[in-house]
Design brief:
Helices cover 40% and strands 15% of the residues. It is an alpha/beta fold. α3 runs parallel beside α10, α10 crosses α14 and α12 packs across α14.
Length: 391
């Protein structure tokens, strides 16, 4: 399997069949497992083998297939699936931290990620936030004993691209573990492990499912981190992925590469067409040559991703008129779907942030985040153009 290309791994990696030889992966909807003897139960609670399970909260054959497939395509030794993307972010950080530890994180993060960091701060973890695009700030914030570094490789929603390789080098110099939320890069364009990341987190709810059906998350890393640090925390706190959701994610992975490349193509076409539009203050897309980190994005991902952020002239009122005039594009706070989705971050995903923090992050009243789907690109562009007239 190590020699397989990504598309092959997306379909076949981690597959395990029952005695019936089913083609599609089986869903094992069970809470517990039966032992042949009390001695076997005792032995399994001491150490489980690759096809041995104890309880649904600890592991499941369907969930394990998803974990092994994700580890294979991400290039890590192991993975652990969770009930949601935020469960994955929370566990990846909390499992390894205690009061007195120091974390350095990029300040441009999804609102819920910032909440997790704030919560860790309330429990005695010191958190330093930096401008993720400024390597000087990363260096200045790091110190001997810094335990972890956390960042989004592409920030939500302003699409700043962080130099993952350089941040990893800075962090590893003081012995810190680098945790990268890679959801905007997607597994298709991800090179986070190759660039030095120790742990990679995904909201599987997004591109991995890709059809708006199920919640899920996954954490990829070394076998030691997954089994010795993460697994005990997740086993006892209960953020387990359901077998049905794992099956949905396995089906999503089969078409992930095809979908994401089509979405990225639509995103680039839309970004280029909207650039310079009279109704817009700016168009943000890493695939545009005018993006501040365009060269870095091309080196790290090879594409600009599936999300375009635009700022509508006239503030929130104009942005709302634009959103309400759309016909094909749907208003929703998700992203990575096969359907094109749009949201207004200042009043939805980042609404709880103080006004001054929104200003610092560039989340203005007119800012709109557009997640491109796989519809016909011409139809999408026509819909966006007519809606801009209404703005």
């Amino acid at each position: 399997m190590d020699d397989w290309k990504t598309r092959t791994k997306l379909i076949h990696a981690g597959a395990r069949r029952s005695q019936y030889g089913e083609m599609s992966e089986a869903i094992f909807l069970t809470q517990g497992f039966v032992y042949d003897s009390a001695e076997q139960a005792e032995a399994r609670f001491i150490e489980t083998g690759p096809d041995e399970f104890i309880y649904g909260r600890y592991g499941n054959p369907t969930v394990r297939m998803f974990e092994e497939r994700m580890a294979a395509i991400e290039g890590t030794e192991d993975a652990f699936a969770t009930a949601s993307g935020m469960a994955a972010v929370n566990a990846a950080l909390t499992a390894m931290l205690k009061a007195g530890d120091h974390v350095v994180a990029a300040r441009a993060l999804f609102g819920s990620c910032l909440y997790v960091l704030e919560t860790l701060g309330r429990f005695g973890v010191e958190v330093t936030l930096v401008d993720g695009t400024d390597l000087g700030q990363w260096r200045a914030a790091m110190r001997e004993g810094t335990k972890a570094v956390f960042l989004e490789s592409v920030s939500n929603p302003t699409l700043e691209v962080i130099d993952v390789r350089s941040v990893c080098e800075i962090a590893h110099a003081v012995g810190a573990t680098v945790i990268v939320d890679n959801v905007f890069a997607t597994p298709t364009f991800s090179k986070a492990v190759e660039l030095g990341a120790d742990v990679v987190v995904y909201s599987a709810t997004k591109h991995i499912d890709g059809s708006g059906r199920c919640l899920g998350g996954v954490i990829c890393g070394t076998e030691t981190y997954i089994r010795k640090v993460l697994e005990p925390y997740l086993k006892h706190t209960g953020a387990a992925m359901s077998p049905f959701n794992a099956w949905v994610m396995l089906k999503g992975l089969e078409t992930l590469d095809l979908r994401v490349r089509a979405q990225a193509g639509n995103a680039l076409a839309v970004a280029e067409a909207l650039s310079g539009h009279a109704k817009l203050e700016r168009v943000i897309y890493p695939g545009l040559k005018g993006h501040a980190q365009h060269d870095l994005a091309m080196a790290q991902m090879g594409a600009g991703g599936t999300v375009v952020t635009i700022e509508v002239k006239g503030g929130q009122a104009a942005a709302f008129r634009f959103l309400n005039a759309l016909e094909i594009v749907k208003i929703s706070n998700n992203l990575g779907d096969a359907k094109t989705i749009i949201t207004h971050p200042a009043t939805t995903t980042h609404q709880r942030l103080p006004a001054e923090q929104k200003v610092l992050l560039g989340i203005t009243p007119g800012l709109v985040r557009l997640s491109l789907g796989i519809e016909d690109g011409g139809d999408l562009l026509a819909d966006l153009m007519q809606a801009l007239e209404a703005a």
